[in-house]
Amino acid sequence: MDALEAIAAKLADAEDDVRKSRHVKEIAELEHDRALRKANDLKKERRALVRAAKVADPTLTTRVIGASARLSSTAVSKILDRDENA
């Protein structure tokens, strides 16, 4: 009987650990989702600023804008092309 009680206690501990892990996992998923939303919002803001920089000074090259925005010239071109095609 002692062995059965010991196993039952270990099982209860394991089930508690599972519940705690699920809670931690849910919190991590919520934080991950929040971080993704924030990153997407910042990307939208950066795209808007890239377009605004080109409008403010049409002589700026994609390379110069890209260096400031930490983007490649190709990425800057795509942002500007989307703006023209919209």
Q: What are its keywords?
A:
86 residues; mainly alpha; rod-shaped
Describe this protein's structure:
The chain has helices at residues 2-56, 62-69, 73-85. With 86 residues, the protein is mostly helical.
Mean pLDDT: 93
Structural class determined from secondary elements: mainly alpha
Biggest β-sheet strands, sense, barrel = none
- Percent of residues in helices: over 70%
> Over the alpha carbons, how many angstroms does the gyration radius reach?
26 Å
What fraction of the residues are assigned to beta strands by DSSP? under 5%
Order of helices and strands: HHH
In whole angstroms, the N-to-C terminal distance is: 75 Å
Shape descriptor: rod-shaped
Low-confidence stretches: none
Query: How many distinct helices?
Result: 3
Number of E-type strands: 0
